[in-house]
Write the structure tokens for this entry.
Amino acid sequence: MTKTMLKKIIEMKKVGAFDNDKLKKYLTNYTGKDCDCLICFNYDGPDNLYNFHDFDKSGCFIVCPKCVQKYRDIDIAELEKTLGNSTNSKGLSLRFRVLERDGFRCAYCGRSPSEHGITLHVDHVIPKSLGGSDLMNNLITACMECNEGKSNRIITIPEHIKFRLERA
């Protein structure tokens, strides 16, 4: 989850957007056919979705019932601690080590910023939302396109990538 998204969720919690009495305001008649949750990037209905339109300039901030339940039950202090940890130097050092280990190239498609003008991310092989860790052997370099395409799914890892992870 991005820092921006985490800040938005904290803001929503502070004003009580996840409280039962306020949730009714955000309930929509979207069925999930053409919309994915902006938090978990997944939705498999049939429940209605929540559009927290007050919290996004576009007026469209779709959240699935699972994520509403998850963030309703998490304490604001815990979210703020997570936000604070996301900017620490240990995290930046770990990110650099992953990028360095992978040769500053996307492990999925092989492209690099210097040759292809792409942006690199550090991706979780097993997404955190599915129980993955922040350990080196669960982190991999991915270009923005590959990372966003993978979303929060677990995919079959090619052998050349498994080799790198095993050495981590």
Remarks:
- The longest strand covers residues 120-124.
- The longest helix spans residues 89-101.
- The chain has a mean pLDDT of 79.
- The CA atoms of residues 98 and 126 lie 15 Å apart.
